[in-house]
Protein 1
Amino acid sequence: MDLREDARARLERLPRSQRADIVQACLQIGRAAEYPLEGRPFLVPLELDAAHAKNAFRQVECLVRALVRLEHHARGRGGEALLQRLRSSLEEGSDRLVRQCTFESADSVEHRLRRVDTFLDPASGRCTAIEVNQAAPLELHYHDVDQRMAASFLGALGIPYEPRLLAPHVVEWLFDEYCARYPGRIPRRIALVSEHGYAGKREVPHVAREYQRAARERYGVHVDIVFCYPPEVKLASGRPTVGGAEVDMIWRYSVYLDTYHERGIDVTDYEAVYAHPEEHLIVNSTGAFLTASKETFVLLGDASVVAALGLAPEEVALLRETVPDTVNLAFDPARRREVLEEREGWISKPTDSSFGEGVVFGAALSRGEWERLVEERTQAGFLFQRRVEYPVVAALEVAEDGSLLERDIEIDFCPFHVGGRIPGPTILRAHVVEPGQRGTRIMNTRAGAFMVPFLAPPRAETPQDRSR
């Protein structure tokens, strides 16, 4: 019996009022952590096939290795043309951030915190990646809240489940970065620098407390994770401080500082700190914006680029399975007719965007609308990518009143890459299937998708892991 069937059988044996109490206990966990739950159905946690999930992790690790190779190659001798193409695919602000990163170790490039957005077909195990993103502190937090709600729910049904949390892996990444720069030392105060203007930032202090707890459990030491905004970072005697106390390292999640300048808010000290990463340890460096460009997917489909990266034949084969056909018509105009004529098989997106902004499904447009869009986007800064069908799975919702509802949901599958590997924790986002919109809605929580707890299989240990 699979998890869904087992959970259903156990739920059906309980009175409806008891089912409602179980859900309320789970929702209270979320509310206490300021997890936004409005409008989201409470679903029995999903458990995908372990072999399929592990193979998807293997594909994602291959993709990230290729991106690391691409970045090193573009920044190295002979990579000037690639570097220029990547930079030209960025908005002005992102390009400025890339130029500001004047130092980052090769290991730090490999170990950056990333989230890879993929679709994993539960039936076939086919995994297709569509983009690679930075991982926001809030989504890390929400993942772990989801895991705790899942453990509470399953535990109430008598199904043991140990939540698989991201926090210990992120803490290990932070400590490893610090110890690599300063052997024999451990960080005692870490500044998590975020930025004003994003919805939900009030929850970020919960992230800080979670990571302090994880550091105590993993290393037996108290580490202050200080949540702050860029204007609060000050230089004193050449060292970064927050609230008058020195910080050992900065976990950066600030982006553009233009708004501060426009409002006359002083961020000169923060700018001075991140302008000298050779002096001050900054993880999640602004250099990450170079290969966050979706143009990388065009380049990884170019045989000459892949050959220049020196990937092994098995890596090239795996990459071909993972990366969908992606084209920039400004560089490959010969494919324009194909894109025009196969409208329903393509989507278009800006090369430098987030939150699903600017993503257009050909299937959602008329032929004339698609032709006008292709005309507008046959230029640098836009690409066209083969549409990946959203997998659909059957889910069981437990309503707040304890009633049980069947749901068909479209899902994506977004593993986290932390410290140079995929440790297992994964975000699943979902839409409830609506026939008129099936497969043409953006799978992003900003656009109405919701997160679903996923019971990640343990990741098989590798020789590299054992040597850590």
Protein 2
Amino acid sequence: MTAEERRNLRAFQDYVIKILDPTYILSYMSPWFKDDEVQYIWAEKNNKGTMEAASLFLKFLLELQEEGWFRGFLDALAHAGYSGLYEAIESWDFQTIERLEEYRSLLKRLQPEFKTTVNPKDILPEVSKCLISQECEEIMQALKKWIEENSELSFLKPGILTGRGKTNQNTGMTLPAQKCALDAFRTNGDKKILIATSVADEGIDIAECNLVILYEYVGNVIKMIQTRGRGRARGSKCFLLTSNAVVIEKEKINIYKEKMMNDSISMLQTWNEAVFKEKVLQIQIQEKVIRDSQGKVEPVPDKENKKLLCRKCKAFACYTVDIRVVEECHYTVVGDAFRKCFVSKLHPKPKSFGYFEKRAKIFCARPNCSHDWGIHVKYKIFEIPVIKIESFVVEDIATGAQKLYAKWKDFHFEKIPFDAKEMPK
């Protein structure tokens, strides 16, 4: 971490303290913190509260001198699902976080007004299940906290549901965590509200509910119909809550597009079936002619020399010219130099698949890093490492530009097949 980055983290620490619950990321920070420091942070949360624990966490964090800790902190935020905070710190742009303060202030202003004008117990028990769709995780947590801390609303016991996939290095809920949240919403009569991201729009089986609330969230017309369809109970309703004129206008356009779609379907249903089939056939023929004339554009392999750095500590690992492809889908590195860059530990679940015998896991050899790089296998008669691209940063030697890849197929470099002749005798 540079001195400027350290100064920036100190300057913006008030934002971090307000948002971060450090106990969620301590397991990911174990390479950097001592056991007694972790215990102090837990004790601070239990005795004084989350913000005090976050303040102590940052104090320990900023005292670290080992190289690579800042990257480890960002990775921990990503793994724990702090997507907004991750992006704000990585770019040192806290405007999004500042805008969240407006929402939090709005919730605080609305709470006393809501208490004096509406008795939640009169209306909310009628809402057997409610699905609140919201894209920003910080706002989701603010909504959940507001409901839990409101004595008139706490009986609703809100749950949270986010997606599983990685986006911009942000990691969502695990499958077991998703299943637990959905089961609680489906079977637990006390769990009356589920606050969800767009993962709830489609693809996940959510129990029927009679109220869907879109809070400052609007997608395209397809998402609008899918989200509204989540209210499968008889007489269900869907509301969009927003003060943003742009969001309102977009929803009006979606409603207009839905009307156009329904009108078009009604018109098509009046067509003669034979005429309709002929029209579709002509369109398909035209589209095929266009596709065939264009041909498939193959990505051009980058033959320039690049190097792989450990994603966590940025230590040098190897050059791309030393990477070889085994059995068309596994990647190894030839040469003795790479073997000095990693250490190995016996694999907890050794097994064989095809010509491969999985024997050990390999990690970055740099002290205080130990980032997971892949596995060590016996391939036929050869002992070779098999690396995973998501464990590394690809750096252009000439420009210094760095890029991350989630899959090998996305990295278009010159892929050289494994050749036994290159292996030492």
